[in-house]
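Design job #97: recover the sequence.
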């Protein structure tokens, strides 16, 4: 009989090695390789297994697709992210920071699905059924076919599924459920792996969709082993700023649809409401043009969104002027200020510059460079640009405007919203863009502008 020798295994992804390593070479995590006993030697011969007709391999052309088609949840923005709806037998993981509204969104999904798909089982491992009932009453998510259970034991949850026989199961959350077959406390790597594997196997065997809520760590990644993201079919990220009511759902992984769609929601006193056309959420309500503002068209997934950028420039008496940004990259703004001073002759080295976006949206793409530059130039000269102006384009260090992706979609959205003047990559340099932007303003200061620029 072969002797059992000591080897090492990664607790995150299961990678094994004969020698200890401080970093797993598979998942690149540090401090996850531990000792594990494994049987080595000659492999025992596997006994053949009789394959039943139901388990027999079939031609891909003979497998029907009707049983795996999407069915809508009743929330169009959530269906957009999922690729058209929920697929029977799919395992969906929804993660997000505490208090962002994950439970509220899934309770709304449960109530809508209870109307369309009869029985829905909502298992809360963090709240009692009375607490969930109180929140459902506040958000008007009550329905007779919505069943609630407050359980933290995996075996009891499976028994609840057998008793209710639902068409949809929601577990909130996977890190608070424990199994007797796993080691450690609830939320540990082995427990999360065991709970997720069991629930996903139940979903596949019974053709039952399962929605799982996942916690996140302080750096924003999903808590638990990385294997959890590999096991599920869809991984969605629910994000938003607590200072604003806007929320976004993004698909990080989707086996049944695209991963570049974004769903927009708004948190209200009555729960969560979907925003089908968020065009007006990121624009100010000023009746007349104000200096230091410019509108750009940003891409959230495949959805173009108009975003207003505001800039304020004041003279500074400090040796190091302040550069304060909100919603835009501070290093990107510092580069744009240097380009404006060197290529456009706008002196900013003795000025405090404050730049912010309207509505709390965050812009990370370089397509917002041109709008930021126009807003800063408008604030310096106290000259507003027209309400009908929309600008998008990347600015290089040489002062040239480079093309950006999805230009047709941005132009079409700007035209639909009434922006008759659009500055994009067709304008060659930043100087030309500034001249064109300010000549179409509401003021009659062309001579002063010519002298300034």
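Job complete. Output follows.
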């Amino acid at each position: 009989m072969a002797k059992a020798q000591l080897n090492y295994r990664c607790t995150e992804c299961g990678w094994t090695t004969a020698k200890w390593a401080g970093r797993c070479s598979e998942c690149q995590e540090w401090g996850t390789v531990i000792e594990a006993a494994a049987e080595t030697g000659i492999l025992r011969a596997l006994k053949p297994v009789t394959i039943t007709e139901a388990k027999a391999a079939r031609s891909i052309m003979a497998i029907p697709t009707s049983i795996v088609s999407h069915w809508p949840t009743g929330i169009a923005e959530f269906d957009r992210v999922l690729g058209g709806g929920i697929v029977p037998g799919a395992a969906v993981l929804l993660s997000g920071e505490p208090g962002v509204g994950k439970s509220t969104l899934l309770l709304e999904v449960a109530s809508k699905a209870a109307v369309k798909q009869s029985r829905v089982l909502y298992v809360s491992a963090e709240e009692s059924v009375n607490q969930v009932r109180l929140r459902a009453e506040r958000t008007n998510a009550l329905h007779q076919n919505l069943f609630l259970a407050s359980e933290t034991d995996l075996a009891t949850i499976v028994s609840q599924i057998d008793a209710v026989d639902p068409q949809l199961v929601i577990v909130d959350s996977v890190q608070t459920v424990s199994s007797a077959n796993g080691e450690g406390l609830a939320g540990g790597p082995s427990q999360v792996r065991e709970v997720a594997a069991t629930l996903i196997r139940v979903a596949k065997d019974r053709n039952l969709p399962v929605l799982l809520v996942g916690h996140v760590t302080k750096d924003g990644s999903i808590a638990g082993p990385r294997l959890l993201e590999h096991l599920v079919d869809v991984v969605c990220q629910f994000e938003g700023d607590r200072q604003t009511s806007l929320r976004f759902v993004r698909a990080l992984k989707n086996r049944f649809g695209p991963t570049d769609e974004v769903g927009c929601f708004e948190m209200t006193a009555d729960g969560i409401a979907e925003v089908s056309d968020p065009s007006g959420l990121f624009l100010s309500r000023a009746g007349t043009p104000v200096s230091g503002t410019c509108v750009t068209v940003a891409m959230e997934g495949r959805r173009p969104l108009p975003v207003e950028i505001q800039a304020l420039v004041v003279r500074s008496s400090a040796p190091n002027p302040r550069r304060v940004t909100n919603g835009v990259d501070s290093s990107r703004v510092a580069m744009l200020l240097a380009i404006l001073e060197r290529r456009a002759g706008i002196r900013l080295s003795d000025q405090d510059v404050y730049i912010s976006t309207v509505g709390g949206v965050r812009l990370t793409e370089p397509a917002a460079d041109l709008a930021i530059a126009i807003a800063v130039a408008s604030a310096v000269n106290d000259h507003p640009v027209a309400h009908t102006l929309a600008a998008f384009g990347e600015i290089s260090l040489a002062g040239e405007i480079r093309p950006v992706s999805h230009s047709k979609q941005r132009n079409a959205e700007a035209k639909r919203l009434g922006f008759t003047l659009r500055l994009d990559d067709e304008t060659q340099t930043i100087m030309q863009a500034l001249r064109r932007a300010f000549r179409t303003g509401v003021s009659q200061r062309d001579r002063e502008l010519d002298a300034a620029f």
